[in-house]
Design a protein that fits this description.
Elements lengths: L1 E7 L5 H15 L6 E6 L7 H10 L4 E6 L6 H17 L4 E4 L7 H11 L8 E7 L5 H15 L4 E8 L7 H11 L4 E6 L5 H11 L6 E3 L7 H15 L4 E2 L5 E2 L1
Parallel strand pairs: 1-2, 1-3, 3-4, 5-6, 5-7, 7-8
Antiparallel strand pairs: 9-10
Helix pairs in contact: 1-8, 4-8
Length: 252
């Protein structure tokens, strides 16, 4: 029997964990798998091990692992596969397949632009793309690729990229610089999947500025397109048309 296990990051904020579960649960209703569970990489429960155990206890002998992450940073590339490798040894009779995060997607960027309210501003904007940050250079390249997709939009004059951790420039420094140097409306786009401490940090920083032309967009899971893509990718994996195994080999 086949199961789907969705892995979210986890947060110290209960609100963030509840939001992640609600997001995944709304997708489950549209996915054709007899067993579906949600778990967290860290900071919350159930853990990945507990999620796998729940699937096995319900009779699963094949588990499709879906990382509910925006980009393939260290967590997706190293931490989750390491834990899945340990669990594969614990459950040698269960097959695991490991999917991709959302990644760089023109469709998602278009959906974000359509739902951002930028068109209603009436003039081209400076877009400040705020990413979590990573020590992984591939992840930073993906962020820059996403920025390039935004910059091609008619509503956007210019895109600046900044980070909340592990990379520079930092969000607070870049926002201060833009407030001092630009006359265009500044649209802040938190490229975060759910709320959490980082989103609260963004909101707190923005409140310090009495700047009528700063617009703070919602984080990206508020957009229906992310649910639709998660469902599409999960269904592809269930049909075994597209998946990535734990050792990282692409199979199509």
């Amino acid at each position: 029997m086949k199961a789907v296990l969705y892995i979210c990051h986890g947060s110290r904020m209960q609100e963030a964990c509840e939001e992640a579960v609600a997001f995944v649960t709304s997708c489950m209703e549209r996915i054709s798998a007899p067993i579906q569970e949600v778990c967290f990489l860290e900071l919350a429960s159930p853990s990945i091990a507990e999620g796998v155990a729940a699937c096995v206890q319900k009779g699963a002998n094949q588990i499709v692992i879906v990382p509910v992450f925006l980009l393939a940073a260290v967590h997706v590339k190293i931490d989750i596969p390491k834990e899945l490798g340990r669990l594969q040894n614990q459950y040698p009779y269960v097959s695991f397949s490991y999917g991709n995060p959302f990644g760089v997607s023109r469709k998602l960027v278009t959906a974000i632009l359509d739902g951002s309210g930028m068109k209603s501003i009436g003039k081209r904007v400076t877009l400040l793309l705020v990413a979590r940050g990573s020590s992984d250079e591939g992840t930073l390249r993906d962020v820059r690729a996403i920025a390039s997709l935004f910059e091609a939009a008619d509503e956007v004059e210019h895109v600046e990229v900044c980070y909340l951790a592990a990379a520079k420039p930092r969000f607070e420094e870049k926002l201060h610089e833009l407030v001092q140097t630009t006359n265009a409306p500044i649209v802040i786009l938190p490229y975060l999947l759910f709320t959490g401490l980082l989103m609260k940090r963004i909101e707190k920083t923005v409140r310090k500025y009495n700047h009528s032309q700063i617009v703070l967009c919602p984080y990206v899971s508020k957009n229906q397109a992310f649910q639709d893509m998660l469902i599409k990718h999960t269904e592809e994996m269930i049909r075994e048309n597209v998946y990535v195994s734990i050792n990282g080999a692409n199979k199509e």
